[in-house]
Write a structure and sequence with these properties.
Oligomer: single chain
Strand content: 25-35%
Number of strands: 24
Largest sheet: 8 strands, mixed
CATH class of one domain: Alpha Beta
CATH architecture of one domain: 3-Layer(bba) Sandwich
CATH superfamily of one domain: FAD/NAD(P)-binding domain
Protein backbone atom coordinates (compact mmCIF):
# COMPACT_ATOMS: atom_id res chain seq x y z
CA UNK A 1 0.00 0.00 0.00
CA UNK A 2 1.30 3.46 -0.93
CA UNK A 3 0.27 5.44 2.13
CA UNK A 4 3.41 7.58 2.39
CA UNK A 5 4.31 10.74 0.56
CA UNK A 6 5.69 10.04 -2.93
CA UNK A 7 7.70 12.47 -5.02
CA UNK A 8 8.12 12.42 -8.78
CA UNK A 9 9.05 14.64 -11.70
CA UNK A 10 5.77 13.78 -13.42
CA UNK A 11 2.53 12.17 -12.29
CA UNK A 12 0.14 10.94 -14.99
CA UNK A 13 -3.52 10.36 -14.22
CA UNK A 14 -4.93 7.68 -16.54
CA UNK A 15 -3.35 4.74 -18.36
CA UNK A 16 -5.01 4.97 -21.77
CA UNK A 17 -3.03 5.79 -24.94
CA UNK A 18 -2.60 9.48 -24.03
CA UNK A 19 -1.38 8.75 -20.52
CA UNK A 20 0.96 5.94 -21.53
CA UNK A 21 2.38 8.00 -24.41
CA UNK A 22 3.15 10.89 -22.06
CA UNK A 23 4.68 8.60 -19.45
CA UNK A 24 6.86 6.75 -21.98
CA UNK A 25 8.06 9.99 -23.57
CA UNK A 26 9.11 11.45 -20.21
CA UNK A 27 10.69 8.26 -18.86
CA UNK A 28 12.77 7.74 -22.00
CA UNK A 29 14.52 11.05 -21.26
CA UNK A 30 15.33 10.22 -17.67
CA UNK A 31 12.43 11.76 -15.77
CA UNK A 32 10.90 9.96 -12.80
CA UNK A 33 7.28 9.19 -13.70
CA UNK A 34 4.40 7.81 -11.64
CA UNK A 35 1.25 6.75 -13.50
CA UNK A 36 -1.97 6.10 -11.60
CA UNK A 37 -5.09 4.33 -12.86
CA UNK A 38 -8.32 3.90 -10.97
CA UNK A 39 -10.48 1.91 -13.38
CA UNK A 40 -10.47 -1.75 -14.30
CA UNK A 41 -7.65 -2.33 -16.78
CA UNK A 42 -7.66 -3.27 -19.56
CA UNK A 43 -11.22 -2.33 -20.52
CA UNK A 44 -13.45 -2.27 -23.56
CA UNK A 45 -13.41 1.00 -25.48
CA UNK A 46 -14.96 1.95 -28.82
CA UNK A 47 -12.96 3.30 -31.73
CA UNK A 48 -10.24 0.76 -32.43
CA UNK A 49 -9.50 1.81 -36.01
CA UNK A 50 -5.99 3.28 -36.42
CA UNK A 51 -4.92 5.20 -39.53
CA UNK A 52 -1.56 4.20 -41.10
CA UNK A 53 -0.23 7.57 -39.93
CA UNK A 54 0.00 6.05 -36.44
CA UNK A 55 3.04 3.93 -37.40
CA UNK A 56 5.74 6.61 -36.86
CA UNK A 57 4.25 7.34 -33.43
CA UNK A 58 4.29 3.67 -32.46
CA UNK A 59 7.94 3.47 -33.53
CA UNK A 60 8.79 6.59 -31.54
CA UNK A 61 7.21 5.05 -28.45
CA UNK A 62 8.97 1.74 -29.03
CA UNK A 63 5.83 -0.37 -29.43
CA UNK A 64 5.58 -0.86 -33.20
CA UNK A 65 6.98 -4.40 -33.17
CA UNK A 66 4.72 -5.38 -30.29
CA UNK A 67 1.70 -4.02 -32.16
CA UNK A 68 2.67 -6.04 -35.24
CA UNK A 69 3.13 -9.17 -33.13
CA UNK A 70 -0.34 -8.70 -31.63
CA UNK A 71 -1.77 -9.66 -35.01
CA UNK A 72 -4.40 -6.96 -35.22
CA UNK A 73 -6.54 -7.02 -38.36
CA UNK A 74 -5.34 -4.64 -41.07
CA UNK A 75 -7.18 -2.92 -43.90
CA UNK A 76 -6.36 -0.67 -46.84
CA UNK A 77 -9.17 1.84 -46.32
CA UNK A 78 -12.81 2.31 -45.36
CA UNK A 79 -16.18 2.05 -47.04
CA UNK A 80 -18.04 5.36 -46.85
CA UNK A 81 -21.66 6.18 -47.68
CA UNK A 82 -22.21 9.73 -46.52
CA UNK A 83 -24.12 11.14 -49.47
CA UNK A 84 -24.71 9.27 -52.68
CA UNK A 85 -23.48 5.75 -53.29
CA UNK A 86 -21.19 3.80 -51.02
CA UNK A 87 -17.56 4.02 -52.10
CA UNK A 88 -14.26 2.63 -50.94
CA UNK A 89 -11.74 5.27 -49.82
CA UNK A 90 -8.20 3.87 -49.60
CA UNK A 91 -5.61 5.21 -47.18
CA UNK A 92 -3.14 5.59 -50.04
CA UNK A 93 0.17 4.17 -51.15
CA UNK A 94 3.75 5.11 -51.85
CA UNK A 95 6.82 3.54 -53.43
CA UNK A 96 6.88 0.85 -50.75
CA UNK A 97 3.30 -0.22 -51.45
CA UNK A 98 -0.23 0.10 -50.11
CA UNK A 99 -0.83 1.74 -46.75
CA UNK A 100 -2.68 -0.38 -44.19
CA UNK A 101 -4.40 0.72 -41.04
CA UNK A 102 -4.86 -1.33 -37.88
CA UNK A 103 -8.14 -2.59 -36.52
CA UNK A 104 -6.68 -2.76 -33.03
CA UNK A 105 -8.31 -4.55 -30.14
CA UNK A 106 -8.19 -1.76 -27.58
CA UNK A 107 -7.69 -3.83 -24.42
CA UNK A 108 -4.58 -5.38 -26.00
CA UNK A 109 -3.39 -2.11 -27.56
CA UNK A 110 -3.65 -0.31 -24.22
CA UNK A 111 -1.86 -3.21 -22.49
CA UNK A 112 1.04 -2.98 -24.97
CA UNK A 113 1.48 0.72 -24.27
CA UNK A 114 1.28 0.30 -20.50
CA UNK A 115 3.75 -2.61 -20.57
CA UNK A 116 6.17 -0.42 -22.50
CA UNK A 117 5.77 2.33 -19.91
CA UNK A 118 6.65 -0.10 -17.13
CA UNK A 119 9.60 -1.44 -19.14
CA UNK A 120 11.15 2.05 -19.43
CA UNK A 121 10.84 2.70 -15.71
CA UNK A 122 7.40 4.23 -15.15
CA UNK A 123 6.00 3.38 -11.71
CA UNK A 124 2.38 2.28 -12.15
CA UNK A 125 0.02 2.34 -9.16
CA UNK A 126 -3.25 0.50 -9.80
CA UNK A 127 -5.91 0.75 -8.56
CA UNK A 128 -5.34 4.31 -7.45
CA UNK A 129 -7.84 7.17 -7.60
CA UNK A 130 -6.98 10.84 -7.79
CA UNK A 131 -9.23 12.77 -5.42
CA UNK A 132 -7.74 16.22 -5.00
CA UNK A 133 -5.30 18.58 -6.69
CA UNK A 134 -2.48 20.01 -4.63
CA UNK A 135 -1.76 23.70 -5.21
CA UNK A 136 1.01 26.03 -4.14
CA UNK A 137 -0.67 29.37 -4.68
CA UNK A 138 -1.88 28.95 -8.30
CA UNK A 139 0.62 26.26 -9.32
CA UNK A 140 -0.37 22.59 -9.53
CA UNK A 141 2.21 20.65 -7.47
CA UNK A 142 0.72 17.19 -7.10
CA UNK A 143 -2.33 15.07 -6.38
CA UNK A 144 -3.94 13.51 -3.36
CA UNK A 145 -4.92 9.93 -4.17
CA UNK A 146 -6.53 6.89 -2.58
CA UNK A 147 -2.98 5.62 -1.93
CA UNK A 148 -1.50 8.80 -0.51
CA UNK A 149 -0.06 12.11 -1.68
CA UNK A 150 2.09 12.36 -4.80
CA UNK A 151 4.11 15.54 -5.27
CA UNK A 152 5.30 16.29 -8.81
CA UNK A 153 6.72 19.07 -10.93
CA UNK A 154 4.10 18.29 -13.59
CA UNK A 155 0.64 16.75 -13.32
CA UNK A 156 -0.76 15.25 -16.52
CA UNK A 157 -4.50 14.67 -16.78
CA UNK A 158 -5.01 11.76 -19.17
CA UNK A 159 -8.18 10.65 -17.44
CA UNK A 160 -10.55 11.15 -20.35
CA UNK A 161 -13.56 13.21 -21.30
CA UNK A 162 -14.83 13.92 -17.79
CA UNK A 163 -12.15 16.69 -17.70
CA UNK A 164 -11.29 15.97 -14.06
CA UNK A 165 -8.39 18.41 -13.75
CA UNK A 166 -10.12 21.23 -15.64
CA UNK A 167 -13.07 21.01 -13.26
CA UNK A 168 -10.86 20.81 -10.18
CA UNK A 169 -8.91 23.98 -11.00
CA UNK A 170 -11.75 25.90 -12.67
CA UNK A 171 -10.58 25.87 -16.30
CA UNK A 172 -13.40 26.72 -18.70
CA UNK A 173 -14.69 24.01 -21.06
CA UNK A 174 -15.96 25.47 -24.35
CA UNK A 175 -18.77 23.58 -26.11
CA UNK A 176 -19.20 23.75 -29.88
CA UNK A 177 -22.16 21.47 -30.61
CA UNK A 178 -25.46 20.31 -29.16
CA UNK A 179 -25.23 17.30 -26.87
CA UNK A 180 -24.13 14.27 -28.90
CA UNK A 181 -24.20 10.71 -27.57
CA UNK A 182 -22.45 7.80 -29.30
CA UNK A 183 -23.59 4.27 -28.49
CA UNK A 184 -21.44 1.25 -29.20
CA UNK A 185 -21.44 -2.50 -28.84
CA UNK A 186 -20.10 -5.84 -30.02
CA UNK A 187 -21.67 -8.81 -31.77
CA UNK A 188 -20.45 -12.36 -32.38
CA UNK A 189 -20.89 -14.43 -35.53
CA UNK A 190 -20.06 -14.12 -39.20
CA UNK A 191 -20.51 -10.99 -41.33
CA UNK A 192 -18.49 -11.54 -44.53
CA UNK A 193 -19.36 -8.10 -45.93
CA UNK A 194 -17.43 -6.50 -43.09
CA UNK A 195 -14.44 -8.84 -42.96
CA UNK A 196 -12.02 -6.84 -45.11
CA UNK A 197 -12.73 -3.17 -44.30
CA UNK A 198 -14.77 -1.06 -41.85
CA UNK A 199 -17.67 1.09 -43.05
CA UNK A 200 -19.36 4.32 -42.04
CA UNK A 201 -22.89 4.83 -43.37
CA UNK A 202 -25.03 7.94 -42.88
CA UNK A 203 -28.82 7.82 -42.89
CA UNK A 204 -31.77 10.08 -42.14
CA UNK A 205 -31.00 10.18 -38.42
CA UNK A 206 -27.21 10.01 -38.09
CA UNK A 207 -24.50 7.51 -38.91
CA UNK A 208 -23.33 3.99 -38.07
CA UNK A 209 -19.77 2.65 -37.99
CA UNK A 210 -19.16 -1.09 -38.33
CA UNK A 211 -15.91 -3.05 -38.25
CA UNK A 212 -14.53 -6.51 -37.64
CA UNK A 213 -12.15 -6.37 -34.66
CA UNK A 214 -11.30 -10.02 -33.99
CA UNK A 215 -12.19 -13.45 -35.27
CA UNK A 216 -16.01 -13.65 -35.27
CA UNK A 217 -16.23 -10.38 -33.31
CA UNK A 218 -17.68 -7.20 -34.79
CA UNK A 219 -17.95 -3.72 -33.31
CA UNK A 220 -20.47 -0.99 -34.05
CA UNK A 221 -20.82 2.67 -33.11
CA UNK A 222 -24.02 4.60 -33.60
CA UNK A 223 -24.39 8.38 -33.35
CA UNK A 224 -27.86 9.80 -33.71
CA UNK A 225 -28.50 13.47 -34.37
CA UNK A 226 -32.17 13.14 -33.42
CA UNK A 227 -34.09 11.79 -30.43
CA UNK A 228 -33.63 8.26 -31.76
CA UNK A 229 -33.71 5.67 -28.96
CA UNK A 230 -31.08 2.95 -29.07
CA UNK A 231 -32.63 -0.18 -27.59
CA UNK A 232 -30.58 -2.85 -25.81
CA UNK A 233 -31.25 -5.32 -28.63
CA UNK A 234 -30.31 -2.84 -31.39
CA UNK A 235 -27.87 -3.97 -34.07
CA UNK A 236 -26.89 -2.49 -37.45
CA UNK A 237 -28.80 -4.05 -40.32
CA UNK A 238 -25.74 -5.92 -41.61
CA UNK A 239 -25.32 -7.56 -38.20
CA UNK A 240 -28.81 -9.03 -38.11
CA UNK A 241 -28.50 -12.67 -37.10
CA UNK A 242 -25.37 -12.08 -35.04
CA UNK A 243 -25.42 -12.56 -31.28
CA UNK A 244 -25.11 -9.48 -29.12
CA UNK A 245 -22.05 -9.82 -26.88
CA UNK A 246 -22.00 -6.35 -25.34
CA UNK A 247 -24.10 -3.21 -25.55
CA UNK A 248 -22.31 -0.25 -23.98
CA UNK A 249 -23.82 2.81 -22.42
CA UNK A 250 -23.81 6.01 -24.42
CA UNK A 251 -20.62 8.08 -24.50
CA UNK A 252 -20.85 11.87 -24.47
CA UNK A 253 -19.05 13.03 -27.64
CA UNK A 254 -20.30 16.62 -27.63
CA UNK A 255 -17.64 18.75 -29.31
CA UNK A 256 -15.67 20.58 -26.63
CA UNK A 257 -12.21 21.91 -25.83
CA UNK A 258 -10.73 23.18 -22.59
CA UNK A 259 -9.76 26.83 -22.69
CA UNK A 260 -6.33 26.29 -21.11
CA UNK A 261 -5.04 22.72 -21.70
CA UNK A 262 -1.61 23.61 -20.28
CA UNK A 263 -0.79 25.83 -17.35
CA UNK A 264 1.35 26.30 -14.28
CA UNK A 265 2.38 22.74 -13.38
CA UNK A 266 -0.04 20.78 -15.57
CA UNK A 267 -1.03 19.45 -19.01
CA UNK A 268 -4.28 17.90 -20.21
CA UNK A 269 -3.89 15.28 -22.95
CA UNK A 270 -6.22 13.22 -25.15
CA UNK A 271 -9.92 13.57 -24.39
CA UNK A 272 -9.10 15.49 -21.21
CA UNK A 273 -8.10 18.36 -23.52
CA UNK A 274 -10.61 18.10 -26.38
CA UNK A 275 -13.42 15.89 -27.64
CA UNK A 276 -14.97 15.59 -31.08
CA UNK A 277 -17.31 12.88 -32.26
CA UNK A 278 -15.86 9.59 -33.60
CA UNK A 279 -16.55 10.40 -37.26
CA UNK A 280 -13.42 12.56 -37.14
CA UNK A 281 -11.47 9.26 -36.82
CA UNK A 282 -8.79 10.92 -34.72
CA UNK A 283 -9.37 9.54 -31.21
CA UNK A 284 -6.33 7.34 -30.65
CA UNK A 285 -4.11 9.36 -33.01
CA UNK A 286 -4.97 12.52 -31.06
CA UNK A 287 -4.31 10.75 -27.77
CA UNK A 288 -0.86 9.55 -28.83
CA UNK A 289 0.19 12.82 -30.46
CA UNK A 290 -0.97 15.01 -27.57
CA UNK A 291 0.77 12.72 -25.09
CA UNK A 292 4.02 12.73 -27.06
CA UNK A 293 3.92 16.52 -27.49
CA UNK A 294 3.17 17.13 -23.82
CA UNK A 295 6.02 14.80 -22.90
CA UNK A 296 8.40 16.60 -25.26
CA UNK A 297 7.52 19.99 -23.76
CA UNK A 298 7.81 18.72 -20.19
CA UNK A 299 11.29 17.40 -21.03
CA UNK A 300 12.31 20.62 -22.81
CA UNK A 301 11.24 22.70 -19.83
CA UNK A 302 12.89 20.31 -17.34
CA UNK A 303 16.25 20.61 -19.11
CA UNK A 304 15.97 24.37 -19.56
CA UNK A 305 15.44 24.40 -23.34
CA UNK A 306 12.14 26.27 -23.16
CA UNK A 307 10.33 28.43 -20.64
CA UNK A 308 7.14 27.20 -19.02
CA UNK A 309 5.26 30.12 -20.57
CA UNK A 310 6.41 29.20 -24.10
CA UNK A 311 5.73 25.50 -23.53
CA UNK A 312 2.21 26.19 -22.32
CA UNK A 313 1.55 28.51 -25.25
CA UNK A 314 2.83 26.04 -27.84
CA UNK A 315 0.75 23.19 -26.44
CA UNK A 316 -2.42 25.24 -26.05
CA UNK A 317 -2.11 26.55 -29.62
CA UNK A 318 -1.57 23.03 -30.96
CA UNK A 319 -4.64 21.70 -29.15
CA UNK A 320 -6.81 24.60 -30.28
CA UNK A 321 -5.65 24.37 -33.92
CA UNK A 322 -6.30 20.62 -34.05
CA UNK A 323 -9.74 21.08 -32.53
CA UNK A 324 -10.70 23.91 -34.88
CA UNK A 325 -9.56 21.89 -37.91
CA UNK A 326 -11.58 18.91 -36.69
CA UNK A 327 -14.82 20.81 -36.23
CA UNK A 328 -14.43 22.58 -39.58
CA UNK A 329 -14.17 19.20 -41.30
CA UNK A 330 -17.06 17.80 -39.27
CA UNK A 331 -19.25 20.76 -40.21
CA UNK A 332 -18.51 20.10 -43.88
CA UNK A 333 -19.37 16.42 -43.45
CA UNK A 334 -22.62 17.07 -41.66
CA UNK A 335 -23.61 19.72 -44.19
CA UNK A 336 -23.86 16.87 -46.74
CA UNK A 337 -26.58 15.11 -44.75
CA UNK A 338 -30.31 15.48 -45.53
CA UNK A 339 -31.81 18.92 -44.95
CA UNK A 340 -33.93 17.90 -41.96
CA UNK A 341 -30.84 16.63 -40.15
CA UNK A 342 -28.77 19.62 -41.19
CA UNK A 343 -31.21 21.94 -39.41
CA UNK A 344 -30.71 20.01 -36.21
CA UNK A 345 -26.94 20.51 -36.31
CA UNK A 346 -26.85 24.13 -37.48
CA UNK A 347 -24.55 25.14 -34.64
Amino acid sequence: MYTQLLKSDVVVIGSGPAGSATAISCALKGLKVILIEGKLFPRLHPGETLHPGVEPLLKQLGVFESVLEAGFLRHAGNWVQWEGDKKFIPFGEDASGTWFGFQAWRPEFDRILLSRAIAVGVQVIHPCYASKILLDKDRVVGVETSEGIIQASKVIDAGGSNHWLAKKIGVLINYHSPRLIAHYGYAVGECPVRDTSPAIVADSQGWTWTAKVRSRLYQWTRLSLTEEKIQKDWLPQEYKGLEIQYHGKGADVTWRVVSQPAGDGYYMVGDAAMVSDPSSSHGVLKALMSGILAGHLVISEYYGKISQLDANYQYSQWINNWFQNDIQELRKMYAMLPTDINKLISF
